[in-house]
Amino acid sequence: MIEEVTGVRRIRMLYLQLLYRCNFTCLHCFHGERLQRADAFSLQEVINLLTLMHHRYGTEAVTLLGGEPFLHKDLPQAVRYAKQQLGLQVEICTNGYRIERRLTEITPYLDFLRVSLEGIGATNDQIRKVGSYQGALSALSRARELGVHTGATLTVTSRNIHEVLPLARTLQDFGARQLKLHCLRSVGNAADHPELLVTDPTAYTRLREQLQAADLAIEIVLDEDLSADGAPETCAPAAGPREIERIEVDPRGALTMSCKAVGKDFHAFWYDKLTDRIHHRPSTTDELTLAVPDVVYGRA
To answer: From 23, 27, 190, 261, which residue has the greatest number of CB atoms within 10 Å?
Structure first.
């Protein structure tokens, strides 16, 4: 159905939100009140969707998210199926809080572990959860011992923009390969915390300049909205490409082709768990009708 509507024949990566449930209530989380919802993918639904995406759209990689993916009871089986049966590149994005035991269990099937951090020490813990900073570093240490490649993600806010470079150096010391920086969007919990927004757009330019001058070994990948001019106003689906980088599915089955649409109910497609099919449900506010631009990433 995606191909018929958009012309897209290949989708390289699936971002699969396994469940909404989380052990954190981060101030900037785009899920907002949905963190309390019970919606989740069963193991069989995960298997069905991964198989469909791999065979129909040539999907070669999956990133498992939540909520908190390590709270999903069938995470080991899902990871094992993705790797052993489909040969997918498997990444998990996690808060890293007390995951060491389960991480050891899934290590043979995991290619990359990415932890979410929002600064150094107390800065991170005030946005995420007390103890979460040390918890994430502990997860990185354990992953390194197990031979799993690691990275991190950070959403740039007024509270942590001055700690991006120190955090990058800390992550580098822990053997992390990449830090991905995101622009804060006022959806979910972030809509209730406007004080987190960076109101001076030139601050992003200064951040880029600092990162470029730092000569870091760790790779820094940035959301192009983190610049004075912002990202190009283009929408890949509307342009009619044959291939796109990613598509994201939430625990209800709502699919979005643009990260800027995630959390805003701008989805044009739904995955029906009962029939194992993707349906087009157009509306006046879906991402295709509104030509919602995608997030563009670049290297510092």
So the answer is: 261
